[in-house]
Amino acid sequence: MNDAAIAISGLVQRRANFELGPIELVIPRGYVTAVVGPNGSGKSSLFRLLLDLAKPDKGRIELLGERVGSGEDTALKARIGYVPEQSIDIEDGLRGSQKADFVRQWYPNWDVNLYQELLRRFEVDPALKLGKMSKGMRRKFDLALAIAHQPELLLLDEPSSGLDPIAWKMMIEVLHRYMDRNGRTIVMASHIIDEVKRLADYIVFVVQGKVLGMYEKDALLDGWQALYVDSGGGAAMDWTRMPGFLSATVSRGTTYKVVTADAPEAERWLAAEEANVRLISKQKLELDEILLFHIEQARGVL
Ligand SMILES: Nc1ncnc2c1ncn2[C@@H]1O[C@H](COP(=O)(O)OP(=O)(O)OP(=O)(O)O)[C@@H](O)[C@H]1O
């Protein structure tokens, strides 16, 4: 079995004021991958290309081993669940139950018990018209619909947008449960740091239409740290020699705050330094601080 859920090569989409790509990216099967980036960086555009809702100018996308955009795709779509960033307005006049009756015809694996259980847990009344549901309720309904056919791949574009804290916790639980079955994959765009930390195994940074890197979450959060180092007041240290060096600023007196993307190696390097340097304390960076570094780096490079 192909162990890539998504394989993207040479993907480019050009618009009047925005260019997405070129993107090379392989997202593994069986894990949760979060796509993180500032507003307007191209996350939703990427999701729409994955689902063949928009056409690329160049490049190739494979989902679950099948090429996207190569013709008949009903069988492939049945293996995928998608929650778009915004619900579709033209469906506002439909009741939830009517939409579910329509949608389930496309999905051989539709599980009516799971659907009903999700609606119960999310406290969504399917008799309501979609346009009459609150924003959060509509979101929960969309999530239930996307999961009820037990897809292998779940694509979620800012899934928690509009959810209250209780519904948010419920969503995290539901997504954890979804992942309990082997071989399932979630790819989600998110601005919610806590959500990414709780759910994601991998993180992809997207800035200005480019993928700046894909990282294993724990390695990323363990690696990116601010080290507070007393330089001993001797000869000036060349901090740029530190493994993973990102920045150095004076914190207080002879103490420097040195940010590194490779804290374990940086600590070994410090211990082996002959100069009179001493590690005083260290602090892991938060995901939003790491994203900010990527954005600043991208500004200089892109
Ligand atoms: N249909 C469209 N036609 C032309 N340009 C578009 C269209 N949709 C989006 N864009 C542009 O593409 C760029 C990326 O938008 P996109 O919605 O993909 O970003 P995003 O990362 O999902 O942002 P957010 O975090 O705000 O949801 C923006 O500059 C946007 O204005």
Automatic annotation (TrEMBL):
The keyword Nucleotide-binding applies. It holds the Pfam family ABC_tran. SMART domains: AAA (SM00382). Keywords: ATP-binding, Nucleotide-binding, Transport. InterPro entries: AAA+_ATPase, ABC_transporter-like_ATP-bd, ABC_transporter-like_CS, ABC_Transporter_VariousFunc, P-loop_NTPase. Gene3D superfamilies: P-loop containing nucleotide triphosphate hydrolases. The keyword ATP-binding applies. Residues 1-233 form the ABC transporter domain. This is ABC transporter ATP-binding protein. SUPFAM superfamilies: P-loop containing nucleoside triphosphate hydrolases. One of its GO terms (molecular function) is ATP hydrolysis activity.
